[in-house]
Amino acid sequence: MKITPDSPPVLSALDRPNSYIGRAVPRPNLHRLTQGRGQYVSDVTLPRMTHVAFLRSPHAHARIVSIATEAAKKAPGVVAVVTGAELAKVMTPWVGVLTHLKGIKSAPQYPIAVDRACWQGEAVCAVVAKTRAQAEDACELIDIVYEELPAVTDPETALDAATPVIHESLGDNICFERKLDVGEVDKAFAASDAVVEATFVCGRHTGVTTEPRAIIADWNEGEQRLTVYQGTQAPHMMQNLFAKHLDLSESQVRVLTKDVGGSFGIKVHTYADEMATVALARLLKRPVKFVADRIESFVTDIHARDHRIKGKIGVTKDGVITAFEIDDLTGIGPYSVYPRTSGIEANQVVNLTGGPYNCPNYRAQTRVVFQNKNVMCQYRAVGHPIAVAVTEGLVELAAAKIGMDPLEIRRRNLFPDDGYPAQTASGLKLEQLSHHEALAHLDTMINYAGLRAEQKALREKHIYRGIGFASFIEVTNPSAAFYGVGGARITSQDGATVKLDAQGLLTIHSGVTEQGQGTEAVLAQCVASSFGISMDRVRVVTGDTDNTPYGGGTWASRAAGIGGEAAWQAGKALRGNVLAVAGAMLQARPEDLDIRDGVVVDKATGAERLGLDELARVAYFRPDTLPPGFQAELMATRHYVPRGWPFAFTNGIQASYLEVDTDTGFVKLLRHWCVEDCGTIINPQLVDEQIRGGVVQGIGAALFEQCLYDERGQMLNGNMADYLVPMAVEMPDIDCGHVVSPTADSELGAKGAGEAGTAGAPACIMNAINDALRPLGAAPLTDMPFTPGKILAALGKI
Amino acid sequence: MKPAPFAYKKVRALDEAIALMGENLDARLLAGGQSLMATLNMRLSAPNLLIDINGIGGLDGIARNGDTIEIGALTRHVQAERSDTIARYAPLIARAMPFIGHAAIRNRGTLGGSIAFADPAAELPACLLALDGEVTAQGPKGKRSIRTSDYFKGLYETALGPQEILTAIRLPAADGNTRTGFAELARRHGDYAIVGLAASARADGKGLKDVRLAYFGVGNTPLRATKSEAALAGGDVDAAVAALDLDPHDDIQASAAVKKHLAGVLLRRVAAQLMERQP
Q: Topology of domain A2-38+493-640, per CATH?
């Protein structure tokens, strides 16, 4: 294990001649996308295609008394006006529960609301027309009579007897709860020299993908087959769900996912309006397109992170953390989202809190409640930013209380680098992490002593700068433990098929998908390296359930670690097959041959023996010249699923350096650092992009982003002017560093890198703000996002 | 979202536009479109006719006539941003320009459009008020000038009549004694400010006179802080801050209390700019 900025440290199976592993090679899809030749769902037009627009509930909770559609049906271009009741005859409802989340419950959700709308923005009627504009015009002609019902909005009172129950059939407003009590928490607190308590609030926010959700569904009555073009992270999962709820076999459904403009976990869920689009296509027997506009994205794309957590930490005067305790509460909207449920985020908060620290005493409670707001579900780094904010917030508050340096308290409590495998108090199994080496690397990278000296000197000039840290662990490469064991048909394995074509070039078909993060580059690198060919001779095909191996898609940082390993193994298998052909042609032993840079060579001398084009020509067109009984197999498939560990945990530490304007409450971010350990780095540029992009989304959570609702359940800032996403001008330089601890579960050794930035950044910013304001006696800020108003209030200026 | 259906007519002359406005009281003028297009697409407004005035000649340009700077209504922000005349003779406008939206918005948006739309959180209406400028308008009854003190009537409401078109704004040309100051606080660069302040004054020995402080983002129109102006002319910044009598409302980004506090912070920052000797 060694700090390496660019490539794996020691020679291994990965270090084949001309290996692309560890190289910052450009993405193969770069030219196509930068030349405007991407093909997003919005770009797809089918013959006889129609467009659907949804009329959405203006109320957070209302009974639908009547829907008058006659005028809309007569409007220009209108093909059909369809209500929830009508569509319920075409598609069955769904319930978002998993069996391994004990006790989780939810109510049946329909593609379009039937009888009752449960959040502002829920679709209540669909208009299908020849153009989207005509569909929207006709929506204005629909007359819906609502009877407004009391809206449940505040999670704190959602379980009170006086609060109405949203779904009568459930009996109460609780979706899921979990309690955990490990070690001897009370005894540990009693034996502590200091106990610090704080209440943390994470603002409800959303993923804001560049390209909104988009789908085209096309039912072919002649074939009895459904083709769906969808911007999704998980085509096979969606294939299963479309089939299930339309009562089709999976073989009757093809999901095609071409270019996708960002996902961040937003596009891995079942959305009622997308299900409705598919049901409408079946009903109308012609293609229907739905592209969410930005206004409806804000009230329908899943929200996340809306948690209130009471936290408690005990420490000795030597800085030993004795115990953690949390009480978490979250409101997730009126339905648990299908099929991954809205219980996972809270479950992750319980699992991950205290995760980096070797502390055996931990008590946690979480309650997940229903409310009449847009649904919440898994968004990038699910639960991590919340757990890390609580853990790291408590650790730095405890350090301040006992007068210890924030890096020193971490050194005294982080799991030791030589103590693996290890297990957290919550039961997470850790294969090999590198907290201490990452911390040491960060210490040097930021010139910590120098920064502290600068901070001190500037304070005398009334310039208030803060340094904050956040250690973290990150869930990646999930096995079946994530969803499969809970009964969801979401596969944790993935496959790759590699084919040598008749000119000696490669094509790889993979079950993982590309949404802009560079998956296709990683796949090409893995296959090119293990097979032995240059990347420009590898074509990558993803996102087509008819033409790729069955796979889970891209989420939870699984594309590189799982999809990459399958690609690596498939490339290797095909190399073996090709060398068998070469051996037959050259009358050599295959094990004495290798493929290097697209040429069959003598393994020992590197002397060129046979071009792949010639090999393919013979294998495909003159197989009669090969030895009797020999059959060339120029296509190979391999699958991979992590088996050794439920998850490949990664770790890291971030630092933020910022300045608070104590007159205005504005925060200026000066610099940000992240040292992380995602195991083998396949493409350092892509890893750094993941870290930086993730940090920016974490900064959004800390300073800018929040879905604001009033007490009646109306979202107040559902547009790009009022919902503040982080923008380039406000972002600091973000420096990345790496420690490499490969997972032994795969030959590649790669873990995921997609969640790390987002996981740690909010806590880091919070700690830096509190560090800046501590000498001014400000009460610790723990309520994200940290707006100027909250900072001014903490300073007593307003 | 898609806009509701509307008719579109590109006109080549002011008279043509004025006549069309008379025939269609529901029509809207399209200049840079940087506010209008968004409201159309969100169906917040649904005019039956858009009258595109971008083809009218002679409505853009920046000129100095003696002690007056005249800026044509169709002048794009980017033209003002790059204009030597503006930099020299209308330094407050030059100071404000970088704060207006982003480059793409400044490429399309027009100065006349901003003043005609009269967003109370926008920079240029406050600058016009701080400079005691004039608006030139043309309608069926001909041309007239409107002092800014009479121009801003209410939320998105101006003295322009239903058939009047704003054709130019006129500002006093800066001279050696002109002082200006500008500051705003926005969560992100390019956003509408939580609160902003545009100011002008004249140097008077070591002090200031004719101080005009125009706040934006704190009311239904840009607002002058007249009591603070007097205190600042007297050289007392603390008194000027204490004399602020703004009464802002809460909005999505900040509470009234935050806005009031920040207005005081801005006053100190802008006062410091006004006190500086300026080129």
A: Aldehyde Oxidoreductase; domain 4 (3.30.365)
